[in-house]
């Protein structure tokens, strides 16, 4: 299979990065304009917060389902189709005043977003040499992590400048531009040659599920702590409210560094990178628990939290795709779903820790999740992909990528 030119591959990866960035910012717009949405729709803040939950559930549940339903479609068709539906879903937010319809639109946007990132991973890894697959994964994933660093402040600024509906209208315009770029630059990557049932057998194999448990625990560890990081910084570290955003910005920048760097470590030695990433996460959370009153150490711990926590994401994606073998196409969507389950689990456990103990207990809860992740990551280090004997081609030809576009 002839590889595209390096410049062409970089352009395609840039488009995929921009696409996941726009989708990530869309997910994080709501927290920045939550009060404006609640007032406009005439609902409580808690009800408006359901828009965040709906988006997360859409990614976690809808992403794998839509990936399974579209397994026979070429990847460019899937990418373009998901962006088109994403545009429609956000237009509903701009035009509708019905709360139920707005919640449904957010869930739909999350579902097609989960499908998009799975297809984007497949396209990204198909246009680079095998030894650079981890870096391609990290570029696609970094669109999401960079949006995580910028999404809430951008959402707050845009909400004040444009109103919440104007913010989502801007997303519609950006999405339309991304759609044009996808149609113009992304090559035609055919669907995989196996049936959905055959792919599921490999995508949900125990060796894959073991690695997915790691990403659930990693994000549970992160969000047990991060959900309550603002009150932690204020009450334990003694950071003034006006400076908390600077601490969070430091964490956000570190997540971007981690997601880019994680791909390089995955290319070098993915099993070892997963052990080091989970171990670094556990140490960072332990420092926050033991030295949360020392601002300088808290900053360093937050930087480590971002680098090691988000650095594991491209490593897990790399491992899942490799361990799934012929089920890689379906498996592409599973890490994002698992991460969202981890977010929900971590936030819930963190809430219990705050209610029963204190805000500092969230760091210990997160550390417990991270330690469990280290143990399982260590246990997965010897897992290997299925052999050719384990996965016959079932009479179909191997997938080829049309590089002519």
From TrEMBL:
MF terms (GO), sorted A to Z: transmembrane transporter activity
Transmembrane parts of this sequence: 12-37, 43-65, 77-97, 103-124, 136-156, 168-187, 208-230, 242-261, 297-321, 359-379
Domain Major facilitator superfamily (MFS) profile: 12-388
A GO cellular-component term linked to this record: plasma membrane
Keyword RNA-binding: no
SUPFAM superfamilies: MFS general substrate transporter
Pfam families linked: MFS_1 (PF07690)
Subcellular location(s) per record: Cell membrane
Keyword annotations: Cell membrane, Membrane, Transmembrane, Transmembrane helix
Membrane topology field: Multi-pass membrane protein
Family annotation (Gene3D superfamilies): MFS general substrate transporter like domains
Name of the featured protein: MFS transporter
